[in-house]
Amino acid sequence: MAVSIQNLRRYGKPAVFALLALPALWLGREWYYAYQGLESGLGWNPVEAFHQITGDWAIRILLLSLAISPLSKVMKSPKPILFRRMIGLFAFFYVCLHLLGYVWLDKAFVWPDIWQDILKRKYITVGAVALILLVPLAVTSTQGWIKRLGARNWQKLHKSVYVIGILAVAHFIMMRKGFQLEPLVYAGILGLLFMLRSKALMKKLRP
Amino acid sequence: MLFKKRNSWDETENAVTSESVYLNRRKFLGAAGLSIGSAAVGLSAVSNAQSERPLKELAYKTSEYSTDEKPTVEAAVTNYNNFYEFGTSKGEPARNAWRLKTTPWNVKVDGLVENPRDYAFEDLIDMNALEERIYRFRCVEAWSMVVPWIGIPLASIIKKLNPLGSAKYVRFETLADSAQMPGIRWPVLEWPYVEGLRMDEAMNPLALMVVGLYGKEIPNQNGAPMRLITPWKYGYKSIKSIARITFTEEQPVSSWTKSAPHEYGFFSNVNPEVSHPRWSQASERKIGSFGRVPTQKFNGYGELVADMYAGMDLRVNH
Question: Which of B35, B41, B48 is the best substitution to test chain A (most A C-beta atoms within 10 A)?
């Protein structure tokens, strides 16, 4: 039995919201434990763990948002699109937590050091660019902005999420020491999503 | 007669988990891939895995080289490790290193040395000469610990081995056995892990061959059965689970230098003035605290080691 759009709006959206909020709630609780000096899921270096976990979730949810339109094409249904904005905004939310962890927990708001980092350390430069590019997308995510920009322009702007995806994965690969598997898995998923997209394009172009 | 009526909430005898299964549950979880679930949410750091080997207490004397700083909690030292042969996350070595078989342990000694041959652990380490050295330990990732190591000066081992006068460097190699070290199935680095010291660095009284930690034998994840500690250098220089010692005329190329020469030089001395491309080295976070403290040149051991680098440009020779 197919789920109606109405039911997806009423039950599906809150469910997805709760699911995507879970890692943040967990992080909040474990951070509180760590800060109190109790045993915490963030382990022996909570600042480092906070960076890693917010970064992991930001990139996972970003890739999930990128998977929505190929998914709706595969399903031949617009239903997945219902969740796209929420997922995209959650990606932005975890990116913000990631940034907050960096400027607050790691750098204690010492702006000259942060600026030095952005200039000097390429993986931080790449991450900062990805984050800045994400801001206009988050701002223009409302219905009002779609109208103001016009659907066509809005869509054009929001395609930059693919560039952000590449930058985010690059940031991850560059950050890890040595030749590690995990960031390459994300790169692989990103590559797959690109392939699905270009295939869809090819179909469209065919007479 | 005493018949106990079975209550609905009672477990039958055969439903009780056997002790061996209970004790080995971590292995079962690992085999079932269940630990991946918790790692995905980031819970992995919680577990306090122990190496299977019971760790014997050691007899040792204290040393004048010890700092009076308060040691980091033992659980942090044994559960927060970089030992990529057992996995690249900090928690994996403690979970995986039980596979490493540390007895018997042989060390191949070769190169420019009077009598190249295999030595047993017992031939190299004089267990009656152990001393405890509480050293500051500084990782290149800009965190630090204070660790009560137990070992013997590397110099005493080198003297015993009788290197030839032409030997200018010591090269160390870690064991690389994929059956015992799951991490080496992926080429994060070129295995086996290689590190090296210049002969004068190796003979420096601070250089310690470590076999113990917190009064006991060293756990596998910390580099059992024998590892190096050079407290004035970044942690990665302190090679773990040493399986081969080679005396050479040429400067050895370490695994990290091979992987990223721009980031990891041969000397790797702790130096807040030389910025690493990835982490600022000006300050560090002590494990167990939230803030950062300024990093000291040579990790605070300059008085004992700075002479060795007189006239060298430590920016070039980083």
Answer: B41
